[in-house]
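User: Can you recover a sequence for this backbone? Please restate the input before giving your answer.

Assistant: Of course. Working from this structure:
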């Protein structure tokens, strides 16, 4: 230091001064002046730096140690998404069917660390296609190398334009179709609608154009969705069966680990979700995931799942079974899988 009280260029600063040279960031946390945000230039004097810096408490909080990594199956999907990775168009889609078990498959597979899934249904390939692929991509969760992006919209399977649109996005897209006995699926569909619109006609009244003659009204959406063989024809024009996985909604209830094992194999990820991760919820009549390190409570489907179905005349059920029988057989033959709905 010269006689004027200034430090000469190149001279070292004493330790007592270095201990005071700190500044505060925008959150009021102290940082050493070695950071570019604090240092204005290599020749700035200590007194000038102290005047420009905000006061901070040298004894304030220090950065906490990094948190320990979550266990392998502690999914990050239900916490704030990390600001790492890239938003990508999905490599796999759950395309159907409504009331078949799609939400269960989505929630179960989201527990896998190599799968990142959009929780809501974007309805891009049926209702929002005009918004463009950039909008669609912006909705996706961020993924890092090796992770798969997945989304679910059950109405895709019955949307005639969806196969072509998905093919134009990527011909390599993997497609998951969760199917269920079309009669029980229709009753479940009606039960859900009835809970929202209690004044709708009876199930029997909506199912038939003429019940006496046994003429089923296939224009009613709840009946039409169950014509799986007809909808499948649109998909096979663009995608081979090897890119499609048909999950049984019935087996998903009695053997969730087995069906999810098939899903994991299809997606090309390791079988980490196994029978030890499930338990059967007697109240809902459906399997749930056991609690994980990231959740203190088990993960079950919401209140809208597991509703008690409305009671339907057994004769009506028999008539609908006969109606669906030829479509079911054709579907079994097309996919090479017998779902035993008869």
């Amino acid at each position: 230091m010269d006689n004027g009280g200034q430090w000469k260029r190149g001279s070292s600063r004493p330790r007592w001064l270095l201990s005071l040279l700190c500044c505060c960031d925008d959150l009021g946390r102290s940082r050493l002046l070695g950071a570019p945000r604090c240092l204005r230039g290599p020749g700035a004097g200590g007194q000038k730096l102290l005047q420009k810096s905000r006061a901070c408490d040298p004894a304030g909080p220090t950065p906490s140690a990094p948190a320990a990594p979550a266990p392998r199956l502690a999914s990050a999907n239900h916490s704030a998404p990390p600001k790492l990775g890239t938003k990508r168009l999905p490599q796999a889609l759950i395309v159907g069917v409504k009331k078949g078990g799609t939400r269960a498959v989505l929630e179960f597979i989201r527990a896998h660390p190599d799968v990142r899934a959009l929780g809501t249904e974007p309805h891009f390939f049926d209702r929002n296609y005009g918004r463009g692929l950039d909008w669609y991509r912006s909705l996706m969760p961020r993924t890092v190398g090796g992770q798969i992006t997945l989304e679910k919209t059950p109405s895709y399977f019955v949307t005639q334009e969806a196969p072509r649109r998905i093919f134009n996005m990527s011909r390599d897209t993997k497609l998951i179709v969760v199917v269920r006995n079309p009669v029980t699926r229709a009753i479940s569909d009606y039960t859900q609608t009835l809970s929202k619109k209690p004044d709708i006609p009876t199930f029997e009244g909506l199912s038939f154009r003429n019940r006496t003659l046994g003429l089923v009204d296939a224009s009613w959406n709840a009946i039409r969705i169950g014509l799986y063989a007809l909808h499948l024809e649109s998909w096979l024009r663009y995608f081979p069966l090897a890119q499609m996985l048909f999950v049984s909604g019935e087996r998903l209830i009695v053997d969730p680990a087995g069906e999810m094992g098939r899903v994991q194999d299809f997606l090309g990820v390791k079988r980490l979700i196994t029978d030890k991760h499930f338990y059967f919820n007697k109240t809902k009549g459906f399997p749930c995931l056991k609690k994980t390190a990231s959740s203190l409570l088990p993960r079950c489907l919401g209140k809208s799942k597991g509703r008690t179905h409305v009671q339907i005349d057994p004769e009506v059920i028999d008539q609908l079974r006969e109606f669906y029988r030829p479509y079911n057989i054709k579907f079994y033959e097309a996919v090479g899988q017998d779902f035993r709905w008869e």
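That completes the design. Confidence is low (pLDDT under 50) at residues 1-72.
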